[in-house]
Amino acid sequence: MNIRAARRYYSPRARPLTPDEAATRAIAYALKDPRRFPEAVEIAADEMALLLRDEPRATLVPIPTSAGDTGPNRVLAAAIAQRMHGRGRVIEALERVRPVESSCARRRRGLAGLTEADHDFRRRGPMLPADVPVYLVDNVTTT
Fold first, then answer.
1. 128-137: per-residue pLDDT in tens?
2. Which of 91, 74, 100 is nearest to 128 (CA)?
3. What is the pTM of this model?
């Protein structure tokens, strides 16, 4: 799997963060509540759309939160698609079979993050076009 990230996400448990790294973490956390922090969506969408500028078309699939809500990542995906000027479309193609403990909460307890199998996603909604690249949209990609 090829991961495209606008910024690298660092943990403060490894070493003290630089001001830029701290700002990236603040944006990532703000993206969990996009209606309260729309400026974070603007920053992230601008940077992510730049990463997709060479794609003639793209399907953006919001990843459900650990509780199963696609809302925050749907807002981010829609903002990215808007900046793609008709070349991107958002499809809610994934849902969680059951809620899971977040990787962040697990790490705070000294456990490893979730594995691919732990996420327990299933496909839902319309079929994804085979000839269009699919990008999974999340505020942080750590697992």
1. 778 899 999 9
2. 91
3. 0.87
